[in-house]
Amino acid sequence: MSGDAPARLRVPYVIAHAGEALPQRLRFARRPLGGLRLAYDDPRRGDVVHGVLRARVLNNRRGAPQWRKLNTLRQWRCMEKNLCQVCGLDATDPDTGRIPWITTATAFRDIPDVPNSGYTSAPATCRACIPESLGMCPRLHVSSAVHTVARSEPAAVLADMFTPGPDGRPVHTGEHNVLVGLNEPALLRNALATQLIVQLHDLQPALHLANRS
Ligand SMILES: [Zn+2]
């Protein structure tokens, strides 16, 4: 093996693999206080997180990488623990205590009237992985900018939406990747969440990180 051979493209930690998909057998269950909520046929502890049913997937990184799809469990874990989406390790910069974050037009939105903040579905990227991650952006046809943030907190989910059918079985409304706030319980009861969205606080440009090579 030649040491000069170009490094094989590393599959980022957060990317889904073909062998991780599971069938989603869903129903609408009656709630103790009345009304219905989306549930699995065989409910398990941990199905419902932040008040929403989370899509089940395996976490074994087997099968071909699906470059445009994120693994729900690993994406969620990255968001809750500020892990790097490429290497899966803590993304917090030990020197500054701040978290480097690559924002892309497709995965970031401003919050009106809240300066230096925003919602994103893309996890953080540690300093060491920033060049590699920026190198993937043109390939994925996304524009990007590098920031740092002081902290992040869960704010919403991206979800597939369901409605009860005539026989009580859930009917997919056809809506994918609907942004549902964690403060919208009525909508959360009809949602199957595939990604966790966080609010970023004290978002500052970090050109010095983008220019390292
Ligand atoms: Zn990393």
Overall radius of gyration: 19 Å
Mean of all residue-level pLDDT scores: 91
Q: Number of folding domains?
A: 1
Which small-molecule ligands are present, each listed once?
A: zinc ion
Q: Distance between the terminal alpha carbons, to the nearest Å?
A: 25 Å
In sequence order, what are the helices and strands, one letter per element? Answer: EEEEEEHEEEHEEEEHEEH
What does this structure look like?
- The chain is mainly β.
- It has one domain.
- The chain is 13% helix and 36% strand.
- The protein has four helices and 15 strands.
- The protein has helices at 72-81, 130-139, 185-188, 207-210, and strands spanning 15-17, 26-30, 36-40, 48-49, 52-54, 65-70, 99-104, 108-109, 117-120, 144-149, 151-164, 170-172, 178-181, 191-201, 204-205.
- The strands form four sheets. Strands 4, 5, 8, 9, 11, 12, 13 and 14 form an eight-stranded mixed sheet that branches. It has a three-stranded antiparallel sheet with strand order 7-10-15. Strands 1-6 form a two-stranded antiparallel sheet.
- A hairpin with a 7-residue loop joins strand 8 and strand 9.
- The model is unreliable at 1-6 (pLDDT under 50).
- Zinc ion (ZN) binds at residues 84, 86-87, 89, 126, 128-129.
